[in-house]
Design a protein that fits this description.
Elements lengths: L5 E14 L4 E16 L4 E5 L6 H8 L7 E6 L2 E2 L5 H7 L3 E4 L13 H11 L6 H13 L16 H13 L5 E5 L7 H18 L2 E6 L2 H7 L2 E6 L2 E7 H6 L4 H8 L51 E4 L2 E3 L10
Parallel strand pairs: 3-8, 3-9, 6-7, 7-8
Antiparallel strand pairs: 1-2, 1-4, 4-5, 9-10, 10-12, 11-12
Helix pairs in contact: 3-4, 3-5, 4-5
């Protein structure tokens, strides 16, 4: 994509398994096994999949918090893993993350003012009175006030702590924010408030989000495009309305079938629930990784890995069926 803010090419992250006194390598955990993603300014890409499929690992690699096994990550046209540390430090202002757990992601020994002002200090954005004014502005932006400046994280609720985490992420005026399941530990009503806040900030500040979640209803609400991940690979990617209306991959269909229906007329709909467990990423199945759990498995699925192909405008599918089916 010519106007991409973020472009990820063939990203792989393998973790070695070491055993014994001499730490001999006995295998590899294929956490992320060759994915391609892209984001344009102001867009939200939802990344969904079961726990353990590699979503968070991929996000940390994209932000260069973890080293890659292989692959390329471009931000505004620059390959970030080739940048020296000094240039990467400057670039981090534009790439931020909101963590899953608001209880452990904030330093309990720092006040709110210290937590939010730290990136302002590190990147030399402002100092003195201007720095404090910036912190107050950020607090107001996320629904808190200057009266919270001298308080510590333990004095806040989970939703308020996540708002502090959002304010910290905004301190450097980023262009991309990775949201790593930011509301999974919050009550439903509080989660809805945080999601609405993120939507408001996106429009006001023209932010791009890589939004990671296992909640498909939330992903449908907040995302412009959705990528479905299974055992380290992208199996389907499309605009949100297309994917929810016409899911093409059996795994996507099963995920959507597992979502509780609000319409009473749909509650009697026969669900295609998944059987079995997610295979071991140390020794994934040959061919299509999903074939041991797929109701449409064919002989070719067991021996040949399907490529991710565009089967309709902006709709990509990695399946030997290669067709769209409405659930």
């Amino acid at each position: 994509m010519d106007n991409s803010l973020l472009e990820v090419k063939n990203l792989k992250k393998y973790f070695p398994i070491e055993r014994g006194f001499l730490r001999h390598g006995t295998g590899m955990v294929r956490a992320v096994d060759g994915i391609d993603l892209s984001l344009v300014p102001g867009e939200t890409l939802g990344l969904v999949g079961e726990s353990g499929c590699g979503k968070s690992t991929a996000a940390r690699c994209i932000l260069r918090l973890l080293p890659l096994t292989t692959g390329e990550v471009y931000f505004e046209g620059r390959e970030i893993f080739g940048l020296p540390r000094t240039q990467m430090r400057k670039l981090r202002r534009a790439m931020q993350i909101i963590f899953q757990d608001p209880y452990s992601s904030l330093n309990p020994r720092q006040t709110v003012e210290s937590i939010i002002s730290e990136p302002i200090k590190v990147h030399r954005i402002a100092k003195g009175k201007a720095r404090q004014d910036k912190v107050i502005e950020l607090l107001t932006m996320v629904g808190l006030s200057s009266s919270h400046l001298k308080r510590y994280p333990h004095e806040f609720s989970g939703g308020q702590r996540q708002r502090i985490g959002i304010a910290r992420a905004l301190a450097g005026s980023p262009k991309l924010i990775v949201c790593d399941e930011p509301v999974s530990s919050l009550d439903v009503s509080i989660a809805a408030q945080i999601i609405n806040l993120l939507q408001e900030l996106k429009g006001r500040l023209r932010l791009a989000y890589l939004f990671i979640s296992h909640d498909l209803r939330m992903i449908e609400y907040i995302s412009d495009r959705v990528a479905v991940m299974y055992l380290g690979k992208i199996v389907e990617q499309a605009r949100a309305e297309d994917l929810y209306r016409r899911p093409g991959h059996p795994y996507t269909q099963s995920l959507l079938d597992a979502v509780p229906k609000n319409d009473p007329r749909e509650r009697g709909h026969r669900k295609k629930l998944l059987g079995g467990d997610v295979p071991n990423p140390v020794n994934p199945p040959p061919g299509c990784h999903f074939h041991p759990r797929c109701a449409h498995v064919m002989p070719v699925c067991k021996s040949e890995e399907p490529a991710l192909k565009e089967i309709a405008p902006d709709h990509f599918l990695a399946c030997h069926l290669q067709k769209l089916e409405a659930i």
